[in-house]
Amino acid sequence: MLNVRANIEDPRNVKLIYDVLKFSPPEIEPAVLFATNNALVCETPDDAMKVAYEIDRSRYDALALDGTFYQKSGIISGGSHDLARKAKRWDEKHMAQLKLQKEKITEELKEVMKKTRRQGELTTVESQIRGLENRLKYSQNDLEASKKSLAEYDRKLDNFTRELDQIGPKIAEIERRMQQRDLKIQDIKESMNNVEDDVYAEFCARIGVANIRQFEERELVLQQERAKKRAEFEQQIDRINNNLEFERSKDTLKNVQRWERAVQDDEDSLETFKQTEARHRQEIEKDKEKIELMKQEKAAHKALVDQTEEEMSKARRDVQALAKEVAAIHQSIANIEARKETMKNKRHNILMQAKMDAIEIPLKQGSMDDIGQQPQQQPQQGGQGGDTSSDTSAAAGGATYERESLIEIDYQQLPGNLKNISDADQVKKTGDTLSKELQAKFETLEKIQTPNMKAMQKLNLVSEKILSTNEELEAARKRAKKAKAAFEKIKNERCTLFTNCCNHISDAIDSIYKQLSRNEAAQAYLGPDNPEEPYLDGINYNCVAPGKRFQPMSNLSGGEKTIAALALLFAIHSFQPAPFFVLDEIDAALDNTNIGKVASYIREKTTNLQTIVISLKEEFYCHADVLVGICPEPADCLVSQTLSLDMEKYENGDQQ
């Protein structure tokens, strides 16, 4: 058994399939061990492929968690390539909504916790009320049970009284019958003795006994008979005595006294229950009064809590209103500051533009030299250049605006119609009009240029250059046309060759697949994804195994994939056959049935197809014409030895 922990450390979590299986009963352990062998299970298909083929010189059977099975023979089966596309992903919008909902619930929870702190006393009062209500319920249950027990005792007393009245006449009748039976028994005994004496008088006189009974006492048989009779009479007497004892035991007077005592006890118990009931009623009344007081206290506490919450809500609303007012004031201040900075920047830009255009502005205070760009800062050393540079730039800009604020413009030279403008819209409109006039004058100045005396010379040079360029362009067009014609010729030849090959393979692959499968129900389709230029895109190849529905090639079993691949190889080979064909262990994933089908197909094509097959299965190489084996030869160094066997000698089975 492979020691995974000792031999495989990367990738992680590689285990034997046998170690992760749970099976029952334990007796099947050898079968499970035989079936799993040294197969390994990995987390991902990449890990499984690495373990199967790349981890060391030895190969292993590896299975990924998504079902992809990498066999050490090179066959890959199962798996799912689109699990990642089918995985669910959270929608960002939905996540944002959930976060908002979480924040809202958190705020609500905080409010509830605040209320919970104030409801401690209310909870205590409610607990006391529930306790008193439970006591009241239990007291009422005891009262109902006592009433039911009292009624049951009254019913039993009535039944006992009726039974006592019925027993008296029965006892008298039984005693009378017993007396009559005693008299009858006595009379019968006397009659029996008299009859026996009369009957056996002569016999008794002859044998010298007073009566026959003496004779019977001496005779064993008569004695046994007498004992039997005596036993019968004794049994009867015992029954009568038992009846008498039973009747005597039924002492009616004692029963009456016993029942009277029971009635008295029940009455005493009833009185006790009544007293207990009265006491419980008093306790219930007291509990009701306490409950009423607690309810009043609860109502008072609740009113106080509601009042406090209302005051807190009002205070909270006032605070929110004040916060909104403060925020509005801060916003207004920020807007004013922003407009102020904007106006300063705008004034700075206008002054800078006037200075750059050499426009003299009449000034009452200051000079044009005070107008300047923000001073250039020396680059900062070290890693603090970002924040320090921005702070310094802001400080320099503030200093520039502060210096320019000392400049006072003289507006006395303005025309009278421009001095009296006070409306902001009119100022903006007049400024736009003046800007347009100024721009028009600048455009007029740009159009007026100094005549270029060398223009004709430059024109001649440009004309000559245009002629030369046109000649080069025409030559390039001819070369491009010739190259395009050559390209189209090669493209057509390439498309023709590829199409002929593809059409031949598409026509031949279905029949080859049927011959390999030995079933006319098998189907194979091959066609290009791009019919116009098939070599630019992929080729679509699908097979339908006999007796199965259509499914993608990746879902076929290892044997079905092998048959499909062989059909494609033989179809490609049929287009331009090679002198011979080399196949390396194509039977690794095939069962004996499919091995026989492939071997029979290759055997049938031996006239047109010479094949060299590397195989380790007897079911396959038994169909070969010649077998060649390779084994090591003992020597000082490793040397290979070849062994060959002509199988044609054994076709008819006449040689060994």
TrEMBL record:
This is SMC1 protein. Residues 372-399 have a biased composition (Low complexity). Signal peptide: none annotated. GO terms for cellular component: cohesin complex; nucleus. Pfam families: SMC_N. It comes from the Eukaryota. It is found in: Chromosome; Nucleus. Its main location: nucleus. GO terms for molecular function: ATP binding; ATP hydrolysis activity; DNA binding. Keywords: Cell cycle, Cell division, Chromosome, Coiled coil, Mitosis, Nucleus. Residues 265-632 form the RecF/RecN/SMC N-terminal domain. One of its GO terms (biological process) is cell division. It comes from Anopheles sinensis (Mosquito). Residues 143-325, 459-493 form a coiled coil. Residues 368-399 are annotated as: Disordered.
